[in-house]
Amino acid sequence: MRRIYLDHSATTPVDPQVAELMMTYFLEYYGNPSSVHFFGRQVRKALEEARSQVASLINANPAEITFTSGGTEADNLAIQGAARARSKKGKHLITTAIEHHAVLDTMEFLAKNGYELTILPVDEEGIISVEELKKAIRPDTILISVMHANNEVGSIQPVEEIGKIAREKDILFHVDAVQSLGKLPIDVKAMNVDLLTVSSHKIYGPKGVGALYVRKGVKISPLVFGGSQERKLRSGTENAPGIIGFGKACELAGQRMEEENKELVRLRDKLMDGIISRIDKVKINGPLGDKRLPNNVNVSINFVEGESLLLSLDMLGIAASSGSACTSGSLDPSHVLLAMGLSHEVAHGSLRLSLGRHNTEEDIDYVLQELPKIVDRLREMSPLYHKAN
Ligand SMILES: *Cc1c(COP(=O)(O)O)cnc(C)c1O
Protein backbone atom coordinates (compact mmCIF):
# COMPACT_ATOMS: atom_id res chain seq x y z
CA MET A 1 0.00 0.00 0.00
CA ARG A 2 1.12 3.50 -0.78
CA ARG A 3 2.06 5.40 2.41
CA ILE A 4 2.32 9.16 2.55
CA TYR A 5 3.70 10.74 5.71
CA LEU A 6 2.35 14.24 6.34
CA ASP A 7 2.97 14.51 10.07
CA HIS A 8 6.48 15.97 10.20
CA SER A 9 5.54 18.43 12.96
CA ALA A 10 4.94 15.42 15.21
CA THR A 11 8.24 13.80 14.31
CA THR A 12 10.51 13.10 11.33
CA PRO A 13 12.36 10.00 10.08
CA VAL A 14 16.04 9.88 11.03
CA ASP A 15 18.26 10.84 8.09
CA PRO A 16 20.29 7.79 6.90
CA GLN A 17 23.56 9.75 7.30
CA VAL A 18 22.58 10.51 10.90
CA ALA A 19 21.66 6.90 11.64
CA GLU A 20 24.90 5.63 10.12
CA LEU A 21 27.03 7.98 12.19
CA MET A 22 25.14 7.04 15.37
CA MET A 23 25.83 3.32 14.81
CA THR A 24 29.56 3.97 15.23
CA TYR A 25 28.90 5.37 18.70
CA PHE A 26 26.74 2.43 19.72
CA LEU A 27 29.09 -0.27 18.45
CA GLU A 28 32.63 1.05 18.28
CA TYR A 29 33.16 4.18 20.36
CA TYR A 30 30.89 3.32 23.26
CA GLY A 31 32.98 4.86 26.05
CA ASN A 32 31.70 7.26 28.67
CA PRO A 33 32.64 10.74 27.44
CA SER A 34 33.91 11.57 30.94
CA SER A 35 36.44 8.72 30.85
CA VAL A 36 40.06 9.61 30.16
CA HIS A 37 40.91 6.50 28.10
CA PHE A 38 40.72 6.11 24.33
CA PHE A 39 37.05 5.04 24.28
CA GLY A 40 36.00 8.04 26.33
CA ARG A 41 38.15 10.51 24.43
CA GLN A 42 36.74 9.50 21.05
CA VAL A 43 33.21 10.11 22.30
CA ARG A 44 34.12 13.40 23.98
CA LYS A 45 35.58 14.67 20.72
CA ALA A 46 32.43 13.79 18.77
CA LEU A 47 30.18 15.23 21.49
CA GLU A 48 31.96 18.57 21.36
CA GLU A 49 31.79 18.53 17.56
CA ALA A 50 28.00 18.05 17.90
CA ARG A 51 27.85 21.00 20.31
CA SER A 52 29.52 23.17 17.67
CA GLN A 53 27.14 21.94 14.98
CA VAL A 54 24.05 22.79 17.06
CA ALA A 55 25.54 26.17 18.07
CA SER A 56 26.40 27.01 14.49
CA LEU A 57 22.80 26.57 13.27
CA ILE A 58 21.57 29.24 15.74
CA ASN A 59 24.65 31.51 15.76
CA ALA A 60 25.56 30.63 19.37
CA ASN A 61 28.90 29.74 20.94
CA PRO A 62 29.34 26.01 21.65
CA ALA A 63 29.75 26.76 25.38
CA GLU A 64 26.20 28.15 25.39
CA ILE A 65 24.65 24.78 24.39
CA THR A 66 23.36 22.37 27.07
CA PHE A 67 22.14 18.98 25.86
CA THR A 68 18.90 17.60 27.31
CA SER A 69 16.56 14.67 26.73
CA GLY A 70 14.49 16.71 24.28
CA GLY A 71 12.49 19.85 23.72
CA THR A 72 10.24 19.17 26.69
CA GLU A 73 13.13 18.99 29.15
CA ALA A 74 14.79 22.06 27.61
CA ASP A 75 11.54 24.05 28.02
CA ASN A 76 11.25 22.87 31.63
CA LEU A 77 14.89 23.68 32.37
CA ALA A 78 14.59 27.15 30.85
CA ILE A 79 11.39 28.11 32.64
CA GLN A 80 11.77 26.41 36.01
CA GLY A 81 15.48 27.18 36.02
CA ALA A 82 14.96 30.87 35.29
CA ALA A 83 12.05 31.18 37.72
CA ARG A 84 14.09 29.67 40.54
CA ALA A 85 17.26 31.62 39.81
CA ARG A 86 15.38 34.94 39.68
CA SER A 87 12.73 34.41 42.35
CA LYS A 88 14.23 37.05 44.64
CA LYS A 89 13.96 39.62 41.87
CA GLY A 90 10.30 38.97 41.15
CA LYS A 91 7.68 36.32 40.55
CA HIS A 92 5.83 37.44 37.45
CA LEU A 93 5.98 35.35 34.27
CA ILE A 94 4.60 36.08 30.79
CA THR A 95 3.76 33.58 28.06
CA THR A 96 1.23 33.11 25.24
CA ALA A 97 -1.98 31.13 24.88
CA ILE A 98 -0.64 29.04 21.98
CA GLU A 99 2.54 27.62 23.50
CA HIS A 100 3.34 23.92 23.45
CA HIS A 101 2.18 22.14 26.61
CA ALA A 102 5.82 21.76 27.68
CA VAL A 103 5.80 25.54 28.21
CA LEU A 104 2.17 26.13 29.22
CA ASP A 105 1.95 23.33 31.77
CA THR A 106 5.31 24.30 33.31
CA MET A 107 4.11 27.90 33.61
CA GLU A 108 0.84 26.78 35.15
CA PHE A 109 2.68 24.58 37.63
CA LEU A 110 4.72 27.61 38.71
CA ALA A 111 1.55 29.73 38.93
CA LYS A 112 0.21 27.20 41.45
CA ASN A 113 3.44 27.46 43.42
CA GLY A 114 3.88 31.10 44.28
CA TYR A 115 4.46 32.71 40.87
CA GLU A 116 2.08 34.95 38.94
CA LEU A 117 1.35 34.32 35.30
CA THR A 118 0.07 36.46 32.41
CA ILE A 119 -1.03 34.52 29.34
CA LEU A 120 -1.11 36.74 26.25
CA PRO A 121 -3.94 36.24 23.75
CA VAL A 122 -3.35 35.87 19.99
CA ASP A 123 -5.17 37.29 16.97
CA GLU A 124 -7.16 35.20 14.48
CA GLU A 125 -3.89 34.30 12.68
CA GLY A 126 -2.29 33.01 15.87
CA ILE A 127 0.11 35.92 16.41
CA ILE A 128 0.55 37.94 19.62
CA SER A 129 0.47 41.73 19.82
CA VAL A 130 3.73 43.37 20.87
CA GLU A 131 1.70 46.24 22.33
CA GLU A 132 -0.21 43.84 24.59
CA LEU A 133 3.09 42.32 25.65
CA LYS A 134 4.50 45.73 26.58
CA LYS A 135 1.40 46.43 28.68
CA ALA A 136 1.72 43.11 30.49
CA ILE A 137 5.28 43.84 31.69
CA ARG A 138 5.52 44.75 35.40
CA PRO A 139 8.43 45.74 37.66
CA ASP A 140 8.46 42.18 39.02
CA THR A 141 8.41 40.42 35.61
CA ILE A 142 11.36 38.03 35.43
CA LEU A 143 10.70 35.89 32.36
CA ILE A 144 8.95 36.11 28.98
CA SER A 145 8.49 32.88 27.03
CA VAL A 146 7.21 33.09 23.44
CA MET A 147 7.54 30.34 20.84
CA HIS A 148 9.19 31.15 17.52
CA ALA A 149 6.78 29.19 15.31
CA ASN A 150 3.64 27.35 16.30
CA ASN A 151 3.46 23.58 15.90
CA GLU A 152 -0.24 23.47 14.95
CA VAL A 153 -0.90 26.44 12.67
CA GLY A 154 2.66 27.45 11.72
CA SER A 155 2.31 31.09 12.81
CA ILE A 156 5.62 32.92 13.31
CA GLN A 157 5.95 35.37 16.21
CA PRO A 158 7.82 38.72 16.13
CA VAL A 159 10.61 37.40 18.35
CA GLU A 160 13.21 40.03 17.40
CA GLU A 161 10.93 42.83 18.56
CA ILE A 162 10.08 41.00 21.77
CA GLY A 163 13.74 40.30 22.42
CA LYS A 164 14.59 43.97 22.17
CA ILE A 165 11.89 44.90 24.69
CA ALA A 166 12.90 42.15 27.13
CA ARG A 167 16.59 43.09 26.97
CA GLU A 168 15.85 46.77 27.60
CA LYS A 169 13.89 45.84 30.73
CA ASP A 170 16.39 43.20 31.90
CA ILE A 171 13.77 40.44 31.66
CA LEU A 172 14.91 36.96 30.61
CA PHE A 173 13.55 35.95 27.21
CA HIS A 174 12.97 32.27 26.38
CA VAL A 175 12.03 31.06 22.90
CA ASP A 176 10.76 27.58 22.06
CA ALA A 177 12.27 27.17 18.59
CA VAL A 178 11.56 23.45 18.18
CA GLN A 179 9.40 23.94 15.08
CA SER A 180 11.46 26.68 13.45
CA LEU A 181 14.90 25.05 13.76
CA GLY A 182 16.09 24.09 10.29
CA LYS A 183 13.10 25.82 8.69
CA LEU A 184 13.68 29.48 9.56
CA PRO A 185 16.99 31.25 10.06
CA ILE A 186 17.70 31.53 13.79
CA ASP A 187 20.23 33.98 15.18
CA VAL A 188 20.14 34.10 18.97
CA LYS A 189 22.24 37.26 19.01
CA ALA A 190 20.10 39.22 16.53
CA MET A 191 16.96 37.95 18.30
CA ASN A 192 18.20 39.09 21.75
CA VAL A 193 17.32 35.69 23.16
CA ASP A 194 18.57 34.50 26.56
CA LEU A 195 17.25 30.94 26.44
CA LEU A 196 16.26 28.92 23.36
CA THR A 197 14.87 25.40 23.10
CA VAL A 198 15.61 23.03 20.21
CA SER A 199 14.84 19.35 19.63
CA SER A 200 16.47 16.72 17.45
CA HIS A 201 13.59 14.56 16.26
CA LYS A 202 11.77 17.37 14.47
CA ILE A 203 14.78 17.89 12.16
CA TYR A 204 15.58 14.30 11.04
CA GLY A 205 17.62 13.47 14.14
CA PRO A 206 16.88 10.82 16.79
CA LYS A 207 14.17 11.13 19.44
CA GLY A 208 15.02 11.82 23.08
CA VAL A 209 17.62 14.52 22.45
CA GLY A 210 17.38 18.28 22.55
CA ALA A 211 19.29 21.28 23.74
CA LEU A 212 18.87 24.54 25.58
CA TYR A 213 20.83 27.58 24.51
CA VAL A 214 21.76 29.60 27.60
CA ARG A 215 23.32 32.95 26.77
CA LYS A 216 26.76 33.50 28.28
CA GLY A 217 26.37 35.19 31.68
CA VAL A 218 22.74 34.12 32.22
CA LYS A 219 22.29 32.08 35.39
CA ILE A 220 19.55 29.44 35.71
CA SER A 221 19.10 26.64 38.26
CA PRO A 222 19.43 22.98 37.22
CA LEU A 223 16.53 20.52 37.46
CA VAL A 224 18.65 17.37 37.54
CA PHE A 225 21.51 16.96 40.00
CA GLY A 226 24.26 14.33 39.96
CA GLY A 227 27.56 13.87 38.15
CA SER A 228 27.99 17.51 37.09
CA GLN A 229 27.82 16.87 33.33
CA GLU A 230 26.93 19.74 30.98
CA ARG A 231 28.62 22.29 33.27
CA LYS A 232 26.42 21.14 36.17
CA LEU A 233 23.28 22.33 34.37
CA ARG A 234 22.15 18.83 33.38
CA SER A 235 23.74 15.92 35.22
CA GLY A 236 23.64 12.38 33.90
CA THR A 237 25.85 10.43 31.47
CA GLU A 238 25.33 12.04 28.09
CA ASN A 239 23.21 10.29 25.44
CA ALA A 240 26.27 10.31 23.20
CA PRO A 241 24.92 8.56 20.07
CA GLY A 242 21.78 10.73 20.26
CA ILE A 243 23.69 13.97 20.73
CA ILE A 244 26.14 13.13 17.96
CA GLY A 245 23.19 12.31 15.66
CA PHE A 246 21.52 15.60 16.60
CA GLY A 247 24.72 17.47 15.69
CA LYS A 248 24.84 15.79 12.28
CA ALA A 249 21.13 16.56 11.72
CA CYS A 250 21.84 20.25 12.45
CA GLU A 251 24.71 20.28 10.00
CA LEU A 252 22.53 18.75 7.27
CA ALA A 253 19.63 21.11 8.05
CA GLY A 254 21.94 24.11 7.69
CA GLN A 255 23.17 22.89 4.31
CA ARG A 256 19.76 22.02 2.94
CA MET A 257 17.45 24.61 4.49
CA GLU A 258 17.32 27.15 1.70
CA GLU A 259 16.73 24.74 -1.15
CA GLU A 260 14.40 22.53 0.85
CA ASN A 261 12.25 25.46 1.93
CA LYS A 262 11.59 26.58 -1.62
CA GLU A 263 10.17 23.16 -2.42
CA LEU A 264 8.21 22.95 0.85
CA VAL A 265 6.58 26.33 0.24
CA ARG A 266 5.65 25.29 -3.31
CA LEU A 267 4.07 22.02 -2.16
CA ARG A 268 2.43 23.69 0.85
CA ASP A 269 0.76 26.33 -1.31
CA LYS A 270 -0.29 23.78 -3.91
CA LEU A 271 -1.90 21.70 -1.15
CA MET A 272 -3.66 24.69 0.45
CA ASP A 273 -4.90 26.09 -2.88
CA GLY A 274 -6.01 22.63 -3.98
CA ILE A 275 -8.02 22.03 -0.82
CA ILE A 276 -9.73 25.43 -1.08
CA SER A 277 -10.66 24.94 -4.72
CA ARG A 278 -11.86 21.34 -4.35
CA ILE A 279 -13.77 21.42 -1.06
CA ASP A 280 -16.42 23.95 -0.04
CA LYS A 281 -16.84 25.34 3.47
CA VAL A 282 -13.19 25.08 4.44
CA LYS A 283 -11.08 27.61 6.29
CA ILE A 284 -7.29 27.91 6.39
CA ASN A 285 -6.09 28.29 9.98
CA GLY A 286 -3.03 30.45 10.58
CA PRO A 287 -1.36 33.15 8.49
CA LEU A 288 -0.51 33.01 4.79
CA GLY A 289 2.80 33.69 3.07
CA ASP A 290 6.02 34.26 4.98
CA LYS A 291 4.38 34.59 8.40
CA ARG A 292 3.76 30.82 8.15
CA LEU A 293 6.18 27.89 8.50
CA PRO A 294 7.11 26.55 5.06
CA ASN A 295 5.79 23.06 5.83
CA ASN A 296 2.51 23.68 7.65
CA VAL A 297 -1.03 23.29 6.32
CA ASN A 298 -3.95 23.55 8.76
CA VAL A 299 -7.55 23.59 7.61
CA SER A 300 -10.95 23.43 9.26
CA ILE A 301 -13.44 21.46 7.23
CA ASN A 302 -16.98 22.20 8.36
CA PHE A 303 -19.39 19.36 9.11
CA VAL A 304 -16.72 16.68 9.52
CA GLU A 305 -14.99 15.39 12.63
CA GLY A 306 -11.21 15.69 12.61
CA GLU A 307 -10.88 12.22 14.10
CA SER A 308 -13.08 10.58 11.44
CA LEU A 309 -11.08 12.40 8.79
CA LEU A 310 -7.82 11.06 10.23
CA LEU A 311 -9.08 7.48 10.32
CA SER A 312 -10.33 7.67 6.72
CA LEU A 313 -7.04 9.17 5.54
CA ASP A 314 -5.08 6.52 7.43
CA MET A 315 -7.02 3.76 5.64
CA LEU A 316 -5.74 5.23 2.38
CA GLY A 317 -2.17 5.36 3.71
CA ILE A 318 -2.11 9.09 4.45
CA ALA A 319 -0.74 10.06 7.89
CA ALA A 320 -1.87 13.44 9.23
CA SER A 321 -3.03 14.87 12.54
CA SER A 322 -6.07 16.73 13.82
CA GLY A 323 -6.84 19.73 15.95
CA SER A 324 -8.05 17.60 18.80
CA ALA A 325 -5.94 15.99 21.43
CA CYS A 326 -7.22 12.81 22.98
CA THR A 327 -6.63 13.39 26.66
CA SER A 328 -8.06 11.05 29.28
CA GLY A 329 -10.57 9.57 26.87
CA SER A 330 -12.29 12.79 25.88
CA LEU A 331 -11.56 14.77 22.72
CA ASP A 332 -10.48 18.28 23.64
CA PRO A 333 -10.29 20.75 20.79
CA SER A 334 -6.85 22.30 20.37
CA HIS A 335 -6.07 25.16 22.79
CA VAL A 336 -4.31 26.89 19.90
CA LEU A 337 -7.36 26.94 17.62
CA LEU A 338 -9.62 28.01 20.50
CA ALA A 339 -7.22 30.85 21.35
CA MET A 340 -7.48 31.98 17.71
CA GLY A 341 -11.22 32.35 18.19
CA LEU A 342 -12.47 29.19 16.50
CA SER A 343 -15.64 27.63 17.88
CA HIS A 344 -15.40 24.14 19.41
CA GLU A 345 -17.21 22.70 16.39
CA VAL A 346 -14.93 24.26 13.80
CA ALA A 347 -11.83 23.40 15.84
CA HIS A 348 -13.00 19.77 15.95
CA GLY A 349 -13.11 19.63 12.16
CA SER A 350 -9.52 20.70 11.71
CA LEU A 351 -6.72 18.84 10.01
CA ARG A 352 -2.96 19.45 10.11
CA LEU A 353 -0.82 18.27 7.21
CA SER A 354 2.87 18.92 7.87
CA LEU A 355 5.26 18.36 4.99
CA GLY A 356 8.84 17.21 4.98
CA ARG A 357 12.02 16.53 3.05
CA HIS A 358 10.75 13.43 1.27
CA ASN A 359 7.30 14.54 0.15
CA THR A 360 6.75 14.78 -3.59
CA GLU A 361 4.37 16.41 -6.03
CA GLU A 362 2.68 12.99 -6.45
CA ASP A 363 2.03 12.84 -2.68
CA ILE A 364 0.18 16.15 -2.86
CA ASP A 365 -1.76 15.08 -5.97
CA TYR A 366 -2.85 11.90 -4.21
CA VAL A 367 -4.10 13.81 -1.15
CA LEU A 368 -5.94 16.29 -3.36
CA GLN A 369 -7.53 13.40 -5.21
CA GLU A 370 -8.63 11.45 -2.09
CA LEU A 371 -9.44 14.13 0.50
CA PRO A 372 -12.49 15.62 -1.31
CA LYS A 373 -13.99 12.11 -1.68
CA ILE A 374 -13.55 11.42 2.03
CA VAL A 375 -15.09 14.77 2.97
CA ASP A 376 -18.08 14.10 0.66
CA ARG A 377 -18.62 10.70 2.23
CA LEU A 378 -18.39 11.99 5.82
CA ARG A 379 -20.69 14.91 5.06
CA GLU A 380 -23.23 12.51 3.51
CA MET A 381 -23.48 10.94 6.95
CA SER A 382 -23.74 14.24 8.81
CA PRO A 383 -27.28 15.37 9.71
CA LEU A 384 -25.92 18.88 10.40
CA TYR A 385 -24.58 19.13 6.87
CA HIS A 386 -27.95 18.19 5.37
CA LYS A 387 -29.79 20.62 7.60
CA ALA A 388 -27.45 23.47 6.61
CA ASN A 389 -27.75 22.75 2.89
C1 LIG B 1 7.70 18.73 19.73
C2 LIG B 1 7.71 20.03 20.43
C3 LIG B 1 8.20 20.15 21.75
C4 LIG B 1 8.66 18.95 22.54
O1 LIG B 1 9.88 18.43 22.08
P1 LIG B 1 10.26 16.91 22.45
O2 LIG B 1 11.66 16.77 21.95
O3 LIG B 1 9.28 16.05 21.72
O4 LIG B 1 10.16 16.78 23.92
C5 LIG B 1 8.22 21.39 22.33
N1 LIG B 1 7.77 22.48 21.68
C6 LIG B 1 7.30 22.42 20.42
C7 LIG B 1 6.84 23.65 19.74
C8 LIG B 1 7.24 21.19 19.76
O5 LIG B 1 6.74 21.12 18.53
Summarize this structure briefly.
The protein has 389 residues and is of the alpha/beta class.
Please give a structural write-up.
By secondary structure, the chain is α/β, with parallel strands linked by helices. It folds into 2 domains: 141 residues, Aspartate Aminotransferase, domain 1; 237 residues, Type I PLP-dependent aspartate aminotransferase-like (Major domain) (Aspartate Aminotransferase, domain 2), CATH 3.40.640. Helix content is 41%, strand content 16%. It is built from 12 helices and 15 strands. It has a 7-stranded mixed beta sheet with strand order 2-8-7-6-5-3-4, with helices on both faces. A 4-stranded antiparallel beta sheet has the order 9-10-15-12. Helix 2 packs parallel to helix 7. The two termini are 36 Å apart. The model has no long low-confidence stretch (mean pLDDT 96). It binds pyridoxal-5'-phosphate. The site of pyridoxal-5'-phosphate (PLP) has 15 residues, from helix 3.
